[in-house]
Amino acid sequence: MPDFTITHKGGIAEYRLMRPDSRNSLTFEMYQAIEDLCEHPGEAGVIVMTAEGEKAFASGTDISNFKDFQSAQDAINYEALIGRVIDAVQRSSVPVIASLHGIVAGGGAAIAAAADIRLATPDTRFGMPIARTLGNCLSVANLNRLVHLLGESRTRYLMLTAEFLEVESLTTSGFVSEVLESAALCDQRARDLAVHMTTLAPLTISATRDGLARLEERPVPADSDLIQRCYLSDDFSEGVDAFFAKRKPTWSGQ
Known about the structure:
Layout lengths: L3 E6 L2 E6 L10 H12 L6 E6 L4 E3 L13 H19 L5 E4 L3 E3 H9 L2 E4 L4 E3 L12 H11 L1 H10 L3 E2 H6 L5 E2 L3 H15 L4 H15 L7 H8 L2 H12 L9
């Protein structure tokens, strides 16, 4: 089975994550394909993002990608890649709809946050549990996105407790627009909504999206020191080792 598929039909491009056995954890190649599709959607008027399996939309980056991290540049390059991918989703020339279910975490949560419209199922749980798992950090740009979408209070709770937000909180905040009873129904609703959107005035759609993007524009502070603080720490190495050993990490604060 491929890690992902991209299909084009009737003016809709669908990117589907296909790693259900790993809860659709994302490889660098999968991230790159998302960036490429969003930057070059071809004839598609809408992009739909879906995922195979019942447990997760996407659980985050495949941890094996972190095994070879040794320098500050490794960490900065990784965050730059994630930043490019998220920017590509957010700035795509066409709307992006995310069909969410189960676990939506880490990089998967960042991608969902960058989409224009998010649909979900009752079992959807959104989180960035890195304070519990790896001991790394989010870029300031991604923190800014979460604050904009969820509010500062929910973002602080999400990040400082490493807990997940249930679908009720996601709908109350407006993060999720609709809740469907199953992943299959959620995917179908996303496809149907995409078809409907292709019938609407394209200049109105593009002007609205660009106008909303301008409202969000603000200088993003530098964060390379924060990234290095976490990714080059003993704690980050411990988090990666603990993940593969299937044990809880022992944090030292070093």
